[in-house]
Amino acid sequence: MDVAVLKQIIKETDKNWRFIFESPLYNKIDFIPGQLVQLVCKPGEDNSVVRNYSVASWPDGTNCFELIITYLEGGAMSEYLFKEAKVGDEFVYRGPMGVFTLTNDIEVRDIFFVSTGSGISPFRSMLGWLNANKIQPKHNIKLFFGTRTKKDLLYYEEMLEYQKNITNFEYVPCLSREKWEGHNGYVHTAYLPEITVAESKPLIYYCGWNKMIEEGRGYLKDLDYKMGDDIRVEIFG
């Protein structure tokens, strides 16, 4: 276990806040984009809480990492972070760790990132890393991000910049409760039509609510997509 100090809180949307932590025991934190940390609040107390969160930032030579967290009413960790935590508080954490990463996938086949809510975190990490290191994918990468309204879009302007800077990257935000100039409807209605006409199977990464992922896996099973070979998942609720 390591110690992190809460350095900054950014209210990205009403229910999605960015929490930036600094790990004072290290000069820098090395990890693979897409990995997660296990965060502990109130360590050592009877009511301590442990939760896993995908890191939303990328390794940049500093000792900081960012999490974007969705407020869940009654959720012990989100209640604490949104209502009690303050800059300067210490947290115990483990990681970053996990295998929900890009590795060499961008050199092999097209990739579709599919996410809802704060499930955009590992994909923001991967894209930020590609952009910062000026890595240009040979195959297509598409991020399909589903939420309710335009005000709920996370990292919106940043994703538009990545679309300009990263070769073969396309950002597809999907709104289910508000009509706008972009895609209207649930996230599945954006990527599934592309899959059905694709010449070869893209690799699908899912991150978000369990219901969304289970629905997606059901659709892909009918198209003969297989876990591991064609589908990777990270579930947070």
Can you list the strand order of the major beta sheet?
A: 4-3-6-1-2-5
Please give the CATH architecture of the largest domain. Answer: 3-Layer(aba) Sandwich
Our count of helices gives 5
The average pLDDT score comes to: 91
- Any idea how many domains? 2
Counted beta strands: 12
The biggest sheet, with number of strands, parallel, antiparallel or mixed sense and barrel status, is:
6 strands, antiparallel
Estimate what percentage of residues fall within beta strands: 25-35%
Distance between the termini: 24 Å
Tell me the Rg in angstroms.
18 Å
pLDDT below 50 for ≥5 consecutive residues: which ranges? none
Q: Kindly state the percentage of residues in helix.
A: 10-25%
Structure class: alpha/beta
The SSE order reads: EEEEEHEEHEHEEHEHE
Shape call: globular
CATH top level label of the largest domain: Alpha Beta
What is the H level of CATH, i.e. the homologous superfamily of the largest domain? Nucleotide-binding domain of ferredoxin-NADP reductase (FNR) module
CATH fold category name of the largest domain? Rossmann fold
